[in-house]
Design goal:
The chain is mainly α. It has one domain. Helices cover 80% and strands 0% of the residues. The chain has four helices and no strands. Helix 1 crosses helix 2 and helix 2 crosses helix 3. The longest helix has 74 residues.
Length: 130
């Protein structure tokens, strides 16, 4: 029987407690190495499980952040669209008001068109209310 236990250990086959004890008596260095390898494999498995658990936690956090950012993006997109509609409405109202007051088209642009005018004339146009 001692040879079969030693042969099983040598082949790397799992052995029962009694057979392992016999194998340890016959080759204690090998039995010690096998035990150390099993413990190392168990520690490695635990590290791997912790790593996977950490990755799953990080994925969950990132999915929550993605959901929150998507909601924020959609709200900002709606707000931007509303502002664009409001700008277009105000521009149309301004154009209607300017056309009703009879302001020549070259003066309807407002201050942005005054940038090309020399500074002494800009003061004059400000005094005139243009």
């Amino acid at each position: 029987m001692p040879n079969t236990a030693l042969a099983a250990v040598a082949a790397g086959m799992p052995v029962s407690g009694a057979e392992a004890a016999q194998a340890a008596l016959l080759d204690p260095k090998r039995a010690k190495r096998i035990l150390a390898n099993r413990q190392s494999a168990a520690r490695s498995k635990e590290r791997k499980l912790r790593y996977i658990s950490d990755l799953e936690r990080r994925v969950s956090i990132l999915e929550q952040q993605e959901h929150s950012l998507c909601e924020q993006y959609n709200k900002l997109l709606e707000h931007t669209s509303g502002l664009a509609r409001e700008r277009h409405a105000l521009e149309a109202a301004l154009a209607d008001a300017d056309s009703q007051q009879g302001i020549p088209s070259e003066l309807q642009g407002g201050p942005s068109e005054l940038q090309g005018i020399p500074s002494d004339m800009q003061g004059l146009s400000g005094e005139l209310g243009l």
